[in-house]
Amino acid sequence: MARATTNSDVFNAVAEPDRRRILDFLAAEERAVGEVVRALGFSQPSVSKHLRVLREVDLVHSRRDGRRMLYRTNAEAIRPLHDWSHAFERYWAQQLRRIKERAESKRRPPPRAGD
Length: 115
Prior knowledge:
This protein is α+β, with helices and mostly antiparallel strands. The chain has a domain of 67 residues: Winged helix-like DNA-binding domain superfamily/Winged helix DNA-binding domain (Arc Repressor Mutant, subunit A). It has a three-stranded antiparallel beta sheet.
């Protein structure tokens, strides 16, 4: 089965680690491209490319401020990621409970004769 293009949906867009780093950086506040470049150490063309993909799937919004373009994370568009990952929360909670129970059962001393 062919993989969807990176700009087709939120899941494919965030599959790229550098885009996730950019989203993390933009989560705190609105930033210009130059700030992203300096803070993350990416090239300007790379940041622009990643921001274009993130904008196309609506994960970031942009606005012009004079000559600068400012970008910010669109938290509402991240909701599908949260909802999808939330489905696994119950699974991991159950796994952690089982590990804890197993570890605690190994710490208990065996019952003594006559108890």
